[in-house]
């Protein structure tokens, strides 16, 4: 059984919903076990045990959220040179941008020599006011469908040995 690890952090629910949708999409593949793991609770060993990786987090202040960055800071050197060639995808929740977090995540993935299965998926929630930004987010089907598709594509590729 190959493992797909979906590492997530979310402050107001959007990135978590994206991660859960990816796990749901991967669920139809019998030979792949999709596991959701909160960034703060994820260790280098979890990454090393996974055949495929999905990272989901919000953009905060033009970079990935602090908890997600701390996870990468903690795991970067223990995993360096030990994840080469593994497939990954990035899911970013943003208010209106998301490019900073996507770029940052891409550079870390390049350092680990991961193989992107698709462009980073950025979902903008269009929250502008402090109240809207701090409110719990609800994503609709239009936003969650591409997350499910990425999870399904990753799981299918892992099952077929394409990734
Ligand atoms: C402290 C803070 C900083 C933020 N900075 C950005 C930003 O730089 N760019 C952006 O597009 N959205 C920014 N946002 C908006 C969030 O990315 C957006 O609300 C996203 O949906 C949050 O995802 P979450 O619900 O998974 O926490 C920021 C939100 C917070 C709380």
Polypeptide structure, described:
By secondary structure, the chain is of the alpha/beta class. It has 6 helices and 7 strands. Strands 1, 2, 3, 4, 5, 6 and 7 form a 7-stranded mixed β-sheet that branches. β1 (2-8), α1 and β2 (32-38) form a beta-alpha-beta unit. α1 packs across α6 (141-160). The radius of gyration is 15 Å and the shape is globular. The two termini are 14 Å apart. The site of flavin mononucleotide has 22 residues, from α1, β3 and β5.
Number of strands: 7
The parts where pLDDT drops under 50 for at least 5 residues are: none
- Return the structural class: alpha/beta
Alpha-carbon distance between the termini?
14 Å
Number of helices: 6
> Which small molecules are bound?
flavin mononucleotide
Q: Indicate the radius of gyration in whole angstroms.
A: 15 Å
Order of helices and strands: EHEHEEHEHEEHH
Shape: globular
Helix-residue proportion: 40-55%
- Main sheet overview: 7 strands, mixed
Q: What is the residue-averaged pLDDT? A: 98
Strand content: 15-25%
Task: Describe the structure in brief.
The protein is α/β, with parallel strands linked by helices and 163 residues long. The chain is built from 6 helices and 7 strands.
List the helices and strands and how they pair.
Blueprint: E1 2-8, H1 14-26, E2 32-38, H2 44-48, E3 52-60, E4 63-64, H3 66-79, E5 87-94, H4 99-111, E6 115-116, E7 121-124, H5 130-134, H6 141-160
Parallel strand pairs: 1-2, 1-3, 3-5, 5-6, 5-7
Antiparallel strand pairs: 3-4
Helix pairs in contact: 1-6
The protein binds flavin mononucleotide.
């Amino acid at each position: 059984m190959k493992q797909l690890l979906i590492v997530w952090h979310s402050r107001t629910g959007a990135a978590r919903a994206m991660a859960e949708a990816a796990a749901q999409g991967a669920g139809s593949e019998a030979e792949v076990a999709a596991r959701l793991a909160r960034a703060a609770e994820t260790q280098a060993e979890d990454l090393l045990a996974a055949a495929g990786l999905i990272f989901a987090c919000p953009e905060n202040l033009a970079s990935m959220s602090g908890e997600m960055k701390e996870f990468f800071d903690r795991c970067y050197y223990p995993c360096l040179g030990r994840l080469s060639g593994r497939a990954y995808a990035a899911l970013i929740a943003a208010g209106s941008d998301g490019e900073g977090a996507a770029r940052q995540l891409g550079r870390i993935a390049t350092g680990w020599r991961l193989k992107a299965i698709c462009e980073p998926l950025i979902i903008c929630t269009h929250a502008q006011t402090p109240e809207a930004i701090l409110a719990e987010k609800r994503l609709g089907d239009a936003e969650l469908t591409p997350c499910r598709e990425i999870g399904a594509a990753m799981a299918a590729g892992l099952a077929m040995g394409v990734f």
